[in-house]
Amino acid sequence: MANILLLEDDIVLAETLVELLESEGFNVVHLHDGEMVIERTFEQSFDLYLFDINVPKLSGFELLKILRESSDKTPTIFLTAMSDIASLSKGFDVGADDYIKKPFDFDELIVRIHALLRKSYKTKNILKEVGNFSFNIEKEELYKEGVFIPLSPYELKITQLFFKNVDKTLLKEEILLMLSDGSEVSEGALRVHITKLRKIGLSITTIKGLGYRFASV
Which secondary-structure segment (H or E) carries 205? Predict the structure, then answer.
């Protein structure tokens, strides 16, 4: 069940939207000014943002710019009466994923929400992010701050295993078995590969007597 944060200062419209979204099975948090949204996003994560633009304290544009600069990539739809090209362009420039003009058809809004959530869930399943690193499970590629990091075949296998098991202790035996691929790999060779991965910045901790742990922080 997706969690949606609704920013809307029109109380009547907000109440209608909350009722509509909850009837579709979504959990909805409604806030009416931009500063409240900033505070709430520090306390709770959401699957989707629905932002009006002309709201108190911080406009939707200012708010989303701040969130994107803090690495918040939550899918966002702007709900607005603005229809000029400049506003539309500004909305996408600050990081919006979609834009729907008021007054809008509620059925269309629901369709757009579901489409954006499906796209988001697929991306989350493919791209694993830890700190300033991201690993594309599908392409088997590691990136640091968006820059591709070349890895040897063994380093790639270890990296993939760690990204699939963030904050879990992996036994040395598990890793060696995964690396073997029909040929024997020594613990010494494993230590060399781990050392190389640490040098590029991956936070891999040795758990004495057990194995290794890749931490999210």
Answer: strand 204-207
pLDDT in the model for residue 204: 94
Class of domain 131-214: mainly alpha
By three-state DSSP, how is residue 149 classified? strand
Q: For residue 76, give Cα distances in angstroms to 47, 73, 192.
A: 9, 8, 43
pLDDT, tens digit (0-9, with 9 covering 90-100), for 87-100: 778 888 898 999 89
Q: Comparing 3-127 with 131-214, is the CATH topology the same? A: no
Mean pLDDT of 5-30: 94
Query: Is the CATH code 3.40.50.2300 the one for domain 3-127?
Result: yes
* The pLDDT of residue 19: 95
Buried b (16+ CB within 10 A) or exposed e, 81-114: ebeeeeebebbeebbbbbbbeeeeeeeebeebbe
Alpha carbon distances (Å) from 73 to 54, 85, 106, 201: 21, 24, 25, 22
Give the whole-angstrom CA distance, residue 14 versus residue 17. 5
pLDDT tens digit string along 189-201? Answer: 889 999 999 999 9
Domain boundaries of the chain, sorted by first residue: 3-127, 131-214
